[in-house]
Design goal:
The chain is of the alpha/beta class. It has a domain of 130 residues: Rossmann fold. It has a six-stranded mixed β-sheet. α8 crosses α9. The longest helix is centred in the first third of the chain and has 13 residues.
Length: 224
Amino acid sequence: MKWIMNRYSHLKGKRVLVTRPKHQAKELIAELRRAGAKVIHIPLIEIADPSDKFRSLNRAISRLDKYDWLIFTSQNAVSKFFQRLSLRGARRATWQSQFAAVGPSTAAALKKHGIRKVIVPRKDNYSADGLIDILKEYDFKGKRILFPSAKKAKESLPKWLKKQGAKLDKVQAYQTVMSKNIDRPRLKRLVRENKIDTVLFYSESAERNFRKIVGQQVAQKKAK
């Protein structure tokens, strides 16, 4: 008999707050429930078009054949990138780029668009720092890299790439904004009455919004 361990099995019986947008939370919620968690879903962010109206991303797409690497640190960046790619009719057949992703979900998003070979961090370290660790095996001196990301993405990876001598184009693919329909009274009540055991954040924006709503000191006690 083959046993498959759910990665959220440690949350069995726990009351878990999911903060991801509705369109991204379905699979996560299903996996949590299969693990026996009691899920509370209150989206704290929405995904919006970049503030520069895709100008920087469009410029990058117009010269895709010049890049040695394309690096993605979120599924949202993958989605927006390929949407613009399709709209602009760019061809992928001539690409010679290598692809890297921050984790398996982002890699899976790339594979849905036909990108089969994707470099990801080791499974115990799916993060920007984990991606840096695995990319240390490659030479980036003089390499042209396209990094489509959120407007306020972490700078640790771009800074590291530049230190390696890479020619980096960090472009806006999207931005995160506070959800318009957050049930603030419910969230505050759940926190006040200690009815949340664990909060799952998948972006710094969601964590910031949580702190704004429930208060900094309370958030520090609840955030995981």
